[in-house]
Amino acid sequence: MDISEMKRIKLLLFEASNAKNASLVEGYIADKIIWHEGCAGEYGSDVVFELPKKDFIDRNILNTGGFPRKKEIIHQIAEDDKVYTLFTVEGNHSTGNCMGYPPTGKHIRYNAQYTARFENGLIVEIWATMDGHYVLKQLGIIK
To answer: All domains of the chain, ordered by start, with CATH?
Structure first.
């Protein structure tokens, strides 16, 4: 798979997320995704787990259980079998949990990054990071 095709699929992933339309990308997602949740572990360590395709779609495309948000791509870089995407997340924390905290009603905006690894035309692994401290400050959880 060439780099431009991988970038196109990543763009579709964000379009699908904003539209909550999984049919745009279902055919490009492996049956299981290895998910690296940066800054989620103790002292900001990486937490790695395997997400079945349905859970990945529910969590990242359909946003079930999360707060309503829009994702906007700022920049993408592709090399070998990976596409790095820097993006902005914005929304009102009026429903669902954010980092384990119940709705605060606050509007938040932050940058995050996903690096997706492709294998045989499918997304098989994602590294996700964001500045959790900055998000918690916006939510009023910490000073």
So the answer is: 3-139 (3.10.450.50)
